[in-house]
Write a structure and sequence with these properties.
Four Helix Bundle (Hemerythrin (Met), subunit A); 143 residues; mainly alpha; 6 helices
């Protein structure tokens, strides 16, 4: 592995840690809600059961969000590392993406202030698309 690639592993791992933390948050809030509303696991097989634990829906929805745009982030990191295209711009952009995803998650799981949540989601997504575009230009210039 090219040593210049190694720093990109850290934001990738940070995104994985964020996903694990939200998973734990989701489990804790769902468990508390199930106890509070006397919902059994088998009740969750129906929409009616999930209606009873609506107060725990945001961490669950956020956990699902962490398998949407971040999939493109993971693919980006792996692709950049595989092609030895890592540089400071990609590293800074990667950290920006992870930080905006973390802020999006915190907002989504707490206040759920949609304008703020949207702003962080939009900024992180835009940076990710710009990084992909920059990478595509670099690859195209090789040929």
């Amino acid at each position: 592995m090219n040593l210049t690639n190694q720093p990109l592993i850290v934001p990738l791992l940070a995104q994985v840690v964020l996903t694990c933390l939200i998973w734990l948050w989701m489990l804790a809030t769902r468990y508390q809600s199930m106890l509070k509303h006397k919902v059994r696991l088998k009740d969750l097989a129906s929409e009616k059961g999930y209606e009873k634990i609506k107060d725990s829906i945001n961490p669950s929805d956020n956990f699902e969000n962490l398998f949407e745009m971040p999939v493109l982030f993971f693919a980006f990191i792996i692709t950049v590392m595989f092609t030895y295209r890592s540089d400071g711009v990609f590293l800074a952009g990667s950290w920006f993406f992870v930080i905006t995803r973390a802020l999006h998650s915190i907002i989504h799981c707490t206040s759920n202030h949609v304008p703020s949540r949207f702003a962080f989601h939009f900024m992180g997504s835009l940076v990710l698309f710009v990084m992909w575009f920059r990478f595509a230009i670099q690859i195209y210039q090789i040929r």
